[in-house]
Amino acid sequence: MDEPTTDLDPIGKIGVFNIARKLHEEKELTLIIVEHETEEALNADRIILMEKGKIIKDGKPREVLKEVDLMEKIGLMPLQIPKYFSQVSNLEKADLPLTYEEGVQKFKELGLQIDEGKYQEILRREDEREKSYGDVIIQAKDVEYVYSNGTKALDGINLEIREGEFIALLGHNGSGKTTLAKHFNCLLKPTRGSVIVYGKDTKNSNVYEIGNYVGYAFQNPDHQIFADTVYDEIAFGPRMRGCTEEEVKERVAEALKAVDMEGFEKEDPFALSKGERQRIAVASILAARPKVIILDEPTTGLDYKEQKRMMELVKRLNESGHTIIMITHTMWIVAEYAHKVAVMRDGKIEMYGKVRDVFKEEGRLLELSLKPPSIVSLSNRLGKTFLSVEEMVSCTKR
Ligand code: ADP
To answer: What is the reported pTM?
Structure first.
């Protein structure tokens, strides 16, 4: 199976791996799975690591997955628990814990402690960020949406988004994330209730007008890209909006710079890598100079290095003043990059708040079939909520 779960939500992933395991156990089937997500590899009997056409490691998961530095070197995301312990202790590789349960025990065994002052400082900075947002720019009031076939996709949505926020929409396939996001740029209008964007009720507006404020990058860049050259692709929006060729040129240059792809003007977008096509899709949104950017699963199908690159770009855009609304299934990305999160189920928002507050409620997340990253689970067991390995390392007293 070649990356069998790339486009699936967490439930779908578990389903595929359960079937694989069942086949393997009951039918004595030999399974070879090509995968770049290390968490998934924990369940294998044997892991083979490859780089540049060579096998560089071949062994049991308990051995291979402790190779934190090697993983990082070849561009794989190392497991968070061994990564954390390799940074805060002198443990031999063989003694590194792998799961958060093992991590809790090891944390206590080693007599490690969390520096309360430093933790409070993180919370204080977060509160400050919360206060720094601007006005409410998107407001959904009692929004209901029913598709023409009778499917009720949104059911009583109330949500306010302030200028400068970075909000992630989480939830299973079919929970309503895309339908909701499409209301924010007027691709859809509510069946009942209202959506106000920059003071305009979308009922009395259209995609063209709201598009001045809100850009929407679709899930699959190949559904968006159509031009023969990168330049024409990005130039399309500004040309549509009647910009002079001079201004078009300026905007294309600005957008390519923002996504770190200067010099690609003459390339055929379809000949680029998935990560590059994804960035071109974002650049073509940026060329319209929107204030709000909606990203629908911007990291799907990208490997760890490309995911990080994409997310660092999104972070920069947010820091330069863009409000970000991102649909994703990738929990570590929500933890490390988003400020706020809304978790959807059956057209309703089930959980909403600061990422740290929502990820603290692990039992509730589990009920919604979502599992936070293992460093979050480890720290929750210790009475604090850390969102990344770096954050927890910075607060660990040895
Ligand atoms: P998500 O983005 O969370 O996967 P969607 O917003 O795509 O969820 O879908 C929400 C619900 O609306 C699902 O039940 C889905 O099947 C349905 N739906 C989505 N698009 C359409 C459509 N064009 N016509 C009819 N039903 C749709």
So the answer is: 0.92
Residues (pLDDT < 50) of the chain are none
**pLDDT, tens only, 79-123:** 999 999 999 999 999 999 999 999 999 999 999 999 999 999 999
Ligand 1 atom 27 nearest Cα: 147
Looking at ligand 1, which residue's alpha carbon is closest to its atom 5? Answer: 176
Strand partners, 192: 144
Protein residue with its CA nearest to atom 16 in ligand 1: 174
Please name the residues in contact with 314: beta carbons below 8 A apart, sequence gap of 6 or more. Answer: 166, 282, 293, 295, 298, 324, 326, 337
Ligand 1, residues 7, 147, 169: which to mutate, most atoms within 8 A of Cβ? 147
The amino acid occupying position 166 is: F
Pocket test for ligand 1, best of 149, 151, 169 (most atoms within 8 A of CB): 151
Q: Is 324 helix (H, G, I), strand (E, B) or coil?
A: strand
In this predicted model, what pLDDT tens digit does every residue of 264-303 receive, in sequence order? 999 999 999 888 998 899 899 989 889 999 999 888 878 8
Q: Is 149 in the pocket of ligand 1 (CB under 6 A)?
A: yes
Taken in order 277, 41, 100, 395, is the CA torsion positive or negative?
negative
